[in-house]
Amino acid sequence: MKIHRNKMILIVFALQLLMLLAVIAMVCAVSGRGRTVTLEMAGYDPYDALRGRYLRLSSPDSRVTLEPGSIERYENRRQSTIPVYVVLDTDPDSGISGFSYASLDCPDSNTPYIRCSSQYLRIYEDGAQISIQPRIEQYYLNERHADALEQSITRDSNILLRLKIWRGMYVVDGLTVDGQAY
Questions:
Q1: String of DSSP letters for 14-58
Q2: pTM above 0.85, yes or no
Q3: Which InterPro entries does the protein's record reference (predicted)?
């Protein structure tokens, strides 16, 4: 009985360790193989005593056009949050990317996209738009830079978020506030 219990404890510990290693491997794969994109963000509330040093960001593009022909398929989904693929377009002059459109089908590997969730659809005369949650709204601050960021970020700050994206997955690669990289 004691040997069986020891084996179970060892198996549970090994599974937890494997899960941690899988997350680390995924982050390393995205960081190593991913392409860099820069998104323009807006910031607010840089410090919360209960949660620590997190910078809350707001994406100006929380509503994205749904690709034509996908409205009926979107409405027929039964989940409360629907996975969508948001294709990114890069402005050739500034190098800043933005959300172009959302698709229910995974784009090809040459197209830069991120996988997001969506909760509702709004239909307008010129097309349909969906609300997306890209989950890039929280950025943990390095303690060395946290105080400087608290002082410098306002709602009018120019905030650029660099992401590494690969196959719809993404990792935060850096943050630039008013020209200062963090």
A1: HHHHHHHHHHHHHHHHHHHHPEEEEEEEEEE---BTTTBSEEEEE
A2: no
A3: GDYXXLXY
